[in-house]
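Recap quiz, item 2
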Amino acid sequence: MKRSRKIILSEKEMPRQWYNILADMPNKPLPPLHPATRQPIGPEDLAAVFPMELIKQEVSAERYIDIPDEVVDLYRTYRPSPVYRAEYLEKAIGTKSKIYYKYEGGNYSGSHKANTAIAQAYYNKKEGVRRITTETGAGQWGSAMSFACNHFGLELLVFMVKVSYNHKPGRKLLMNAYNARVVPSPSMMTAAGRKILEEDPESPGSLGIAISEAMEVALQDPYTKYSLGSVLNHVILHQTIIGQEALIQMEKAGDYPDVVIGCFGGGSNFSGIAFPFLRERLLNGKNIRLLTVEPASCPKLTKGKFLYDFGDTAGMTPLLPMYTLGHNFIPEKIHAGGLRYHGAGVLVSQLLKDGFIEAKAKMQRECFEAGVLFARTEGILPAPESTYAIAGALDEARKADLEGVSKTILFNLSGHGHFDISAYEKYFEGNLPDHELTDAEVEEALSKINLPVA
Amino acid sequence: MKRSRKIILSEKEMPRQWYNILADMPNKPLPPLHPATRQPIGPEDLAAVFPMELIKQEVSAERYIDIPDEVVDLYRTYRPSPVYRAEYLEKAIGTKSKIYYKYEGGNYSGSHKANTAIAQAYYNKKEGVRRITTETGAGQWGSAMSFACNHFGLELLVFMVKVSYNHKPGRKLLMNAYNARVVPSPSMMTAAGRKILEEDPESPGSLGIAISEAMEVALQDPYTKYSLGSVLNHVILHQTIIGQEALIQMEKAGDYPDVVIGCFGGGSNFSGIAFPFLRERLLNGKNIRLLTVEPASCPKLTKGKFLYDFGDTAGMTPLLPMYTLGHNFIPEKIHAGGLRYHGAGVLVSQLLKDGFIEAKAKMQRECFEAGVLFARTEGILPAPESTYAIAGALDEARKADLEGVSKTILFNLSGHGHFDISAYEKYFEGNLPDHELTDAEVEEALSKINLPVA
């Protein structure tokens, strides 16, 4: 009998707590500032937008936070998720390194987004909220919220970035099947959307714009709250279930990663797998590298600046200390819609600044090439976003081979690409737009904002 | 701690043998006949089309056949598959019955078809075949073969039923991503296709036509063989891994089904889950019902006749003793493309004739309604084909409730509907074609063929 191909855990082995890295960070992040007063905000400033339990999690310094039974209950429909040894991929590239991946696409939403969608819908329902508004890029987050809201009896209104709405009609239909309403953004429904459309009727939209629209609607009704799929501390917190499981699974495999890799949009799938491993480094001195991979066309971590910036385009969110390309930056229309975000979450930004995390940027074509190789060897068609993590893992394996060493690589396969198949068609046709943002373009983007340096 | 939501098995618990029901059937099926001589065929008559090991399996009377290590190895990428207790669905309909489902959509192909695709590709490769031709309806089978052939280093040419090719571009693209060539059928590549197109240039195609085209190409080259995704004994055999696992899982759940349900196209997913349970009835006297659910627009089991008929439209296959609507019957363009087949496999046909199996037919709209309810409660968007099994399970639960009893129901959720999302759009628009075939239409269809009564 050969070694198991996949490392699975029983429901009983599923961790019952999320891990909050804030407790263990040597330098705590700077506080968020009020958009008008530019003074540090308190929990009450967020109460119009989020339920109190999520606000508490946003600022909590507790190391572990219990996962409520109702959330565990829905997690049990798809968790624990498997870790695979990518033996066919290893063979295809002839590497001496070992490549593992944690697969988060095997749930109703097709990505890791379900982990926080379920938690957010639960806390909103518990506090009497009736309707949620949110944004979505490629649609993974919107799909995740659709089913979760429907499960807990909440209405959902999704502002979907227009370029993705047009590229990926399947994702919109999936949200409809899960009982959500989906509107392409920018839309005429909001002042923020109308302003953008006045300036540019052909605007492809961006996550920043969609966030502005969703927040604007939420602020108009006390029974409506807003929900965000990445960036914020409480979102990152919920995703740590991924890494908590992966730690147990790597131990079961009798192995330990030299490097943990995730693609990077706002930070949630990367942080989810990486932070529990970073805890082992911070608290127990484990030697491990953490690597993010972002698009060269939206390189906030590799070329952005560490500033106080808004999370949305219209400037409605608090100012957050983050690596950013500027809140009104509109990224190239790459197919990895979930990575088309101007900024990075506060926790990741601080950790990058302090040297605990590495970042690299890659071109879309090379990532799709890695995605097709992965599909043909491992049998899972990856989401365009996830192909960046695959490409990052291949880089690490090849580098190790050149150096004559064998490494153990773990990456997060954040989702499947079943609703992104038209992007693969473009790849096969040799018809993928791509662009490596130049330093001059970054300067220009950042010159449009005038905000305090963090 | 609540009862586990899903019943999973470790790789070590995966059965290492397929189950061959032929060994235990009270009445053995009549022999297949040569299309020209109408005499019983021998293994040598199939050698131009199939590798010898599959021909041996086709006629074997051994009760168990070992699964080769190379096949087990790929099975381990996604097997054992989970059995879920459908607790949210039960709650939504307020039933006292217990509903379980075995989910076969969690693999690279998105359906149970991978189970036989891997086996068939393996045996072909082992016997020196270089290229495979096959047909596909909705594309689940073609996707399954694409990855399997690529894995074993075989070329694949897929004739895809034209209506599905046009309805489901995503499936075609997935096959391309897995390195297969896909041609809409009827095509100009074959004499069979050209003949159909001459008579009806707008022909939507059918599985029967696509089979004729694929066989025609295979017969022209000794290094090319043909592969079928359902109907035949060896295909059914490979699918019994489903029921073999489900037996262990139901035992783990401390439960036993009163009825096992599968949707019905050619018979492979139904037989796969049902036959190991039927063995328990035949050998150990277990009391259990086995129910197939087919489309009212393609009702071979409920309205067809038990005849010797061809498996394909052009009459190239052996004559098989089967329930059929006639090999040139073109079914309504329902979205469950995998159920648009004129006949039923020999094993199921004989067992239905002998009263071991029940059959019912349902309309497309009601099945989609069941599918949407399932998606919103259980969180898996089902393939249109699988919605027939769901609708059948709901019928059983409701009937039990009306009778004031509680039943244990197990159905096979054969695949996901990620590439069928446009069919759901049609459902929501109230725009699904549907048709219940009348007795007169069945008579007319059967009058077009003149074949020996089995």
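The CA atoms of residues 208 and 312 of chain B lie 4 Å apart.
The domain at 6-12+69-110+234-447 of chain B is CATH 3.40.50.1100 (Rossmann fold).
End of item.
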